[in-house]
Specification:
mainly alpha
């Protein structure tokens, strides 16, 4: 019963979000609360929610201050010169913009952190998409493909979890997956080019009317610009990002310090500081509220045992006759499974059980691990409601979560299946 209610809960949240019947925040709060009551654990609900909120609190705090910081950097005009310089290089060709977005994402995801990738890439590229009148869903999908495929790296969370859970060497796990991962990146690049061609066709003659001249600013916008402080603000952005990557401070601390410095230097007037915070507070609080709602969802699902029961139920219904094909089946379904399981629940609860069942039919545990990282919270993490960074991606790009999932699901699955297919051809994953 616990597994059935858990599955219905996850599916209900996904359907409500993607159908836009209710807001993501309400879906992530109300549905798991009802499920918790149905499984008879209403008395423990408060503790579950608190645990879940604690798990996302650092990300939520970081998001609030990151949005405020990047908002202030937009007010001072720090991004305008950068955007105009990039546009002068790539012109008004959507194909080049999409390709550029993909490669920027690959570089920014070298540290394996989705949050860092989204915080660097989206604020840099979104103004270009807006200026070109390109669909922001395309931006979110391309960034998701780049970050998701790069997430297979051995220092990425899923790969480390898989190696740890099954007690196998990271080298044995990852090295045979290098070529499949490269092929996945090529597939992502091809899809990015296709998106660019589609946007080019959609915009049509509109592209000819798009000028690279700086936009006309209102008097209020002009008053907030700080052109004499451009190099200081650019240096502040770079130092903040570097501090984030090298973990000089916790992510929230990096943006707290950066915001304070930006305010003091650019806008020393207290009334103006309050006005600017109020101006950007709506976006910051709206998205952070969804993050904390996601914490409520994951807290209840994990601590109530529903995710574990789903894992055990999944194993029990699989016929033993398909055990020899477990690795291939897992590889094919690994990306969609990101919508059902958070990384810890899958890699520490589901994968060991699947690996044990596979070994009875002669499937090596390392093969199961390789199949899992083909999509489970790697390629699939940027659309999963169970990973906080997904909400960071959609919040920063201004795309509704349901729209993002519908727009990105198939491209991400194609990339994942490409990785699986190449791995099968190479004999890395047995059929």
């Amino acid at each position: 019963m616990l597994a059935i209610i858990g599955l219905v809960t996850v599916l209900a949240v996904l359907v409500l979000i993607m159908s836009k019947k209710v807001s993501p925040m309400i879906s992530l709060i109300v549905v798991p609360m009802i499920a918790c009551l149905l499984v008879g654990q209403g008395g423990e609900m408060g503790g579950y929610i608190t645990a879940g909120i604690k798990s996302v609190a650092p990300t939520g705090c970081m998001f609030i201050f990151a949005v405020l910081f990047f908002g202030i950097m937009g007010d001072v005009g720090a991004f305008e010169r950068i955007v105009n310089a990039i546009l002068r290089v790539i012109g008004t060709d959507p194909v080049k913009i999409c390709i550029g977005t993909f490669f920027v994402t690959l570089m920014t995801h070298l540290d394996g952190s989705g949050a860092t990738t989204f915080l660097i890439t989206i604020p840099a590229m979104l103004p270009i998409y807006q200026k070109m009148k390109m669909d922001p869903r395309v931006l979110a999908t391309i960034v998701a493909m780049g970050a998701g495929t790069m997430n297979l790296v051995p220092w990425g969370g899923p790969t480390i979890r898989a190696a740890t859970a099954l007690e196998i060497s990271l080298t044995d796990l990852y090295n045979p997956m290098i070529i499949p991962q490269i092929c996945g990146l090529v597939a992502g690049l091809a899809i990015s080019i296709w998106f660019g061609l589609r946007e080019k066709k959609r915009l049509g003659e509109t592209l000819a009317s798009i000028t690279l001249e700086p936009k006309q600013l209102s008097e209020e916008e002009k008053a907030l610009r700080r052109p004499k402080l451009f190099w200081f603000n650019l240096a502040l952005i770079v130092v903040t990002i570097v501090s984030l990557v090298v973990e000089l401070l916790p992510p929230a601390g990096c943006f707290m310090a950066a915001l304070a410095i930006a305010m003091i230097v650019n806008y020393p007037n207290l009334d103006l500081q309050r006005k600017l915070v109020d101006m950007h507070a709506e976006a910051a609080l709206m998205m952070s509220s969804v993050l904390f709602a996601a914490g409520c969802f994951t807290g209840i699902m994990s601590n109530s045992g529903m995710l574990t029961a789903m894992a055990e139920g999944l194993i029990s219904i699989l016929p033993q006759s398909v055990a020899s094909h477990f690795a291939f089946a897992l590889g094919i379904t690994s990306m969609p499974l990101s919508l059902l399981f958070d990384p810890d629940s899958f890699y520490y609860a589901v994968l060991p059980v699947l690996a044990a069942a596979g070994e009875t039919a002669g499937v090596a545990a390392v093969a199961m691990a390789r199949a899992a990282i083909c999509g489970q919270i790697t390629v699939g993490f940027p659309i999963s409601p169970l990973t906080p960074s997904t909400f960071l991606l959609t919040g920063l790009s201004g795309v509704d979560l349901g729209d993002h999932q519908k727009h990105s699901f198939l491209p991400l699955w194609i990339v994942s299946l490409t990785i699986v297919l190449v791995a099968v051809i190479m004999g890395v994953i047995p059929v």
